[in-house]
Structure to design on (465 residues):
């Protein structure tokens, strides 16, 4: 009898040891010891995107969305040009239909500055809004993100949330109000990301704020808004999509980025290439290859313009989590140090290098430089953009992608390098100096770069063809 009880006791102990330790299924749970991370690189990535709604005419639903949110005092942000155009009218009609009380701010600057951000922030603080609607391109959406952030954190100084080393780069811990973004261009993908970019005039460089918490609550992607875009705005917006896709796909892998955060709140929005961002980047690149030329050349090509509008969001999902690298890092001083260049189709009263143009002009040189680290990815991108790689050698991947990009840009009448927009070799030291603070993105280059490397890349970008 005692032997039988002993067998039963042993059996029960064996069953207990074999029991599921999962907290959902097991009756007992013991903490699994932490596996130490090797070195100081990250071991995880996360995906954060806005909710997205797509459809022709879907802007008419915004009034209902704000009603559903219980919004009583709404800030509508746009710029002077857009305030008179159909996209803004469509938003205002929906707000009026559903009885939404709103105030309009239409002083957003195309390619915003720290001062134009702060002007919008003051408007938001005074208005005490409980929701925001941004109608426009990346300049408008980014400005609205900043206004929402600082209105929610009124005691913060402006540089508190600006990316280091220019600002303090503090994590955002305050709750923000709902923000609905209505993109009217097909480039920045700002409706999906937690990034807001501006020109810091004192240093003559672009920088920004990067935090998942500032991403819009909802992105309304209505292809009807793209039909009035002029040719060069379509082109430059599309070049931004192109480089978002290329840079995020070729970025340093997330598990090679350092340092590994001690707390997940400190994990950066731009984490490095990863399996999920890769999917979106490649899909966006295929859409660009198929539709960008059509969208530029024929404003009546609704299929092409609608697909480029979606491609902007696809690439935004990719780079908004993986990040970008040298093309964007080098573009910021190109925009910030602009002299007298004024692009066609942009109705502005100041010199301006459109963001997409400032990014794409260095792309041939950049990808020729980075390809030695991930040549197979560079070759794959070249093939998507139309290169015949059947007899290509892997060591030539960078040159093949660079030549493919040059042909692509030449076919679309892009300015012949930095010299064509007012720069010379004498400007290279200043351009390099303006790139150095952009470590948030330049450190995601798969190939580390010295100041001499950056000088060579700017020199190689003075002339494209």
């Amino acid at each position: 009898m005692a032997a039988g009880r002993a067998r039963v006791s042993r059996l029960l102990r064996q069953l207990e040891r074999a029991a599921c330790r999962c907290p959902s299924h097991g009756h007992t749970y013991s903490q699994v010891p932490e596996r130490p991370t090797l070195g100081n690189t990250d071991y995880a990535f996360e995906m954060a995107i806005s909710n997205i709604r797509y459809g022709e005419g879907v802007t008419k639903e915004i009034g209902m969305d704000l009603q559903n949110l219980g919004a009583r005092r709404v800030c509508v942000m746009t710029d002077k040009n857009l305030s008179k155009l159909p996209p803004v009218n469509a938003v205002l009609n929906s707000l009026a239909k559903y009885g939404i009380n709103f105030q309009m701010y239409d002083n957003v600057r195309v390619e915003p500055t720290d001062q134009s951000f702060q002007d919008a922030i003051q408007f938001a603080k005074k208005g005490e809004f409980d929701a925001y609607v941004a109608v426009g391109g990346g300049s408008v959406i980014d400005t609205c993100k900043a206004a929402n952030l600082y209105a929610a954190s009124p005691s913060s100084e402006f540089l508190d949330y600006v990316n280091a080393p220019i600002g303090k780069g503090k994590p955002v811990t305050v709750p923000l109000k709902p923000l609905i973004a209505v993109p009217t261009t097909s480039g920045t993908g700002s409706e999906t990301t937690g990034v807001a970019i501006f020109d810091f005039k004192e240093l003559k460089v672009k920088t920004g704020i990067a935090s998942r918490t500032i991403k819009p609550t909802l992105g309304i992607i209505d292809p009807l808004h793209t039909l009035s875009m002029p040719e060069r705005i379509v082109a430059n917006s599309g070049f931004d999509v192109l480089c978002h896709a290329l840079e995020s796909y070729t970025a340093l892998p997330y598990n090679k980025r350092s340092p590994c955060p001690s707390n997940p709140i400190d994990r950066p929005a731009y984490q490095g290439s990863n399996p999920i961002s890769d999917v979106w980047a490649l899909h966006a690149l295929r859409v660009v290859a198929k539709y960008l030329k059509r969208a530029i050349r024929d404003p009546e090509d609704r299929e092409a313009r609608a697909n480029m509008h979606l491609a902007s969001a696809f690439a935004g999902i990719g780079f908004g989590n993986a990040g970008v690298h040298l093309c964007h890092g080098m573009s910021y001083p190109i925009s910030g140090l602009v002299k007298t260049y004024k692009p066609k189709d942009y109705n502005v009263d100041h010199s301006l290098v459109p963001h997409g143009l400032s990014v794409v002009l260095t792309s041939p040189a950049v990808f020729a430089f980075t390809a030695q680290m991930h040549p197979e990815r560079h070759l794959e991108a070249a093939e998507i953009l139309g290169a015949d790689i059947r007899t290509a050698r892997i060591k030539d991947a960078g040159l093949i992608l660079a030549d493919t990009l040059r042909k692509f840009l030449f076919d679309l009448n892009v300015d012949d390098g930095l010299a064509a927009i007012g720069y010379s070799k004498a400007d290279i030291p200043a351009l390099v100096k303006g790139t150095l603070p952009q470590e948030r993105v330049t450190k995601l280059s798969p190939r580390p770069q010295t100041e001499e490397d950056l000088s060579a890349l700017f020199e190689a970008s003075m002339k494209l063809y």
